[in-house]
Specification:
The structure is a single chain. The chain has helices spanning 35-43, 98-101, 104-110, 223-227, 230-246, 256-259, 306-315, 322-326, and strands spanning 5-15, 18-24, 63-69, 77-84, 91-92, 120-127, 132-141, 144-145, 162-168, 186-190, 194-203, 205-211, 265-271, 275-276, 282-283, 290-296, 299-300, 336-340, 343-354, 357-380. The chain is an alpha+beta fold and 389 residues long. It has two domains: 5-173 and 370-380, Roll (Diaminopimelate Epimerase, Chain A, domain 1); 186-364, Roll (Diaminopimelate Epimerase, Chain A, domain 1), CATH 3.10.310.10. The two termini are 25 Å apart.
């Protein structure tokens, strides 16, 4: 084995509509400054094909979950999410991924960090990125995880056992509450375009919501078409960049893709209407409550992020928010149906008002997971020559 090579035990798990590499934290260096180089090399970044690594050449397949047994009394495991850029030498720890979160419970049980009990094992997960607790209810039998089932989620072929995810007290991952600007609606001045009304909401992850029609969109666009429209992609990133500045994440909106590529997540919404999903399925207006598209690392999300659904559910109960504006007046907030490029995602929210203030108790939804492989990755780190930087 080369002195520049490390051998890293890894598991590959599909979590929801994403796929990632899951690693026990004990197998990584204690010095977290060394993680970035290892993860970039592991995933094969930067390279649009990620041909020399385990990444799948898209943002939803270039993710890493780092997990350890927790010392916290309210959690069983600690979980750190890493978004590895495909084409940039960049690893972002800002924000969480709800889809990848759905694989954390099964992984924790598989690795003996949590003991399976009965037919349903709750795994309490502390997400270090957002300082929030997620409870994953994992189907188990005879002390093992059950992956087979009849539950189907849009964007994943076939069926599997459901994983119920509950995000407890999800508001304020940035430490500024559910509405980090203090407003249900803000107006952003977007260079080269003009003023755009948005709602910046922070629950599970911070999202910036805009009306699709205000951006010249319908929220029915197919991801492939939108991703081949550089003008629209540029506009969406400009809006997101201005929101990032307003949140205090960056000072220069033009640097958003480099300095805060993962959050806030750009989302545009529209009133419910019939549309055709990416796989050609006709989705009826009566079967959804709103249309919504999310962006992921400056590209169109092929389906819908779970944390995005959690934030959308929270935004649905914010009086006057952009999301509430496009929803039917009688929407069931325990069963909000989001129409996205791959189909329909159902989610819900528990909330109450205290002293005139809205408090989101939890948001919830269902995903599935599949344990695909476990192996030893041989990560050959670059040996930089003398004088190189």
């Amino acid at each position: 084995m080369s002195k520049n090579e490390i051998r890293l035990p890894v598991s590959i798990i599909r979590g929801g509509t994403s796929k990632g590499v899951y690693i026990l934290q004990k197998d990584l260096p204690e010095n977290k400054d060394k993680w970035e180089g290892i993860l970039l090399r592991l995933m094969g970044s930067p390279d649009k094909k990620q041909i020399d690594g385990l990444g799948g050449a898209t943002s939803v397949t270039s993710k890493v979950a780092i997990i350890r047994k927790s010392d916290r009394p309210d959690a069983d495991v600690d979980y750190t999410f890493a978004q590895v850029s495909v084409d940039k030498p960049l690893v972002s720890y800002k924000g969480n991924c709800g889809n990848i979160s759905s694989g954390v419970g099964p992984f924790a049980i598989e690795k003996g960090l949590v003991e399976a009990k009965g037919n349903l094992t709750p795994v309490r997960i502390y997400n270090t990125n957002t300082d929030k607790i997620i409870v994953a209810d994992v189907k188990t039998e005879d002390g093992e995880v059950v992956y087979d089932g009849d539950f189907r989620i849009a964007g994943v072929p076939g069926t599997a056992a459901p994983v119920r995810l509950k995000f407890v007290q999800p508001s304020g991952t940035l430490g500024k509450g559910l509405l980090p600007t203090g407003n249900a609606v803000d107006v952003l001045d977007v260079p080269g375009f003009g003023k755009v009304e948005v709602s910046i909401v922070d629950a599970a992850n911070p999202l910036v919501f805009a009306r699709a029609e205000d951006l010249g969109l319908t929220a029915k666009e197919l991801p492939a078409d939108l991703d081949n429209d550089p003008v629209k992609l540029d506009l969406l990133e400009k809006v997101r960049g201005e929101a990032a500045v307003k949140l205090g994440l960056i000072q220069d909106a033009s640097r958003s893709a480099w300095e805060t590529p993962g959050i806030p997540k750009m989302t545009f919404v529209a009133k419910a209407d019939s549309y055709t999903s990416s796989d050609g399925k006709e989705i009826a207006k009566k079967d959804i409550d709103l249309l919504s598209h999310m962006m992921s690392m400056q590209k169109t999300h092929p389906s819908y992020a779970m944390t995005g659904a959690m934030c959308t559910a929270a935004a649905a109960v914010v009086p006057g928010s952009i999301v509430q504006q496009v929803l039917p007046e009688n929407v069931d907030t325990q069963f909000i149906r989001i129409g996205h490029p791959s189909g329909i995602l159902e989610c819900g929210v528990d909330f109450e008002e205290k002293d005139g203030e809205l408090e989101v108790i939890d948001t919830f939804g269902f995903r599935t997971a599949n344990y695909l492989a476990e192996a030893t990755a041989r990560v050959r780190l670059e040996n930089k020559g003398k004088g190189e930087k």
